[in-house]
Amino acid sequence: MAYQQVIGLGVAGNFAGHLEQAGEARDFVAVKVKDAVAPKAIFPFYLPGLSDHFLATYPLSHDTIRYPQGADHLQIEPEVGLLCDIHYDAEHRVTALTPRAFGAYNDCSIRREGARKISEKKNWGADSKGVAASLLPLDHLQPGGRLDGYRIASFLLRDGQLYAYGIDSAVVDYSYFHQTLLDWIIEKMNEQPDEGPAEDIAGYLALCGYPSQALISIGATRYTEFGEHHFLQPGDTSLVVLYPQARFSSEQIVAGLRAGTLVDAEVSILRQQVV
């Protein structure tokens, strides 16, 4: 499924330790947060319906990462992607987000020194982001919902060898999750100022004609030692997997990926070739 009419947003700093590993914690020193574990900001990665903005280029692919010219620090960012309906009031303020589906997402990012905004590291053109070809239906994002039982894992396939890239993590270990996360995103969509690395999302919603849906990546997990220090190159394959922990062990996921036999209606797999 394509999402050309859906605004693309991401959550920065929603998994303890990720920003520090990515060398980005210093970018948010001056950002005011609600509490010690709160995410730092939301950022746009795709603005539908525009023509004169670098974020107007549709960046999502379910099978390809197009390697950017001049980049040498390109990393997988394994995340949950949430497809949400956006509800507005008469003044076009966001009043609610209704999650409809979820899937494996790769917020593939350039570690670009000197970037003023988070978005400058996120969308360098077509095939610079990843989302699973089909999303899984979501009942709700309240405690006890379907997504609670999932884990996120990611891998790099290079020269026939499979390397764990992100630490296999429970989705419920996000710093903000359930309604706490949705309420925080709504607040940022309405109130986040254009300052520091953050941007005015309410202004972007207006420019895009108040889209009815958002694809929201809710935060990248921590890297393994290998993932922290190894960057993507053409010829690599990036793998992000969301799987129900009640049905699969991490060892079964790895074995299935190595054998090429991991196909299941309850598993979301994003496999992207770097070209």
TrEMBL record:
InterPro entries: DUF5718. Pfam families: DUF5718 (PF18985). This is DUF5718 family protein. It comes from Pseudaeromonas sharmana.
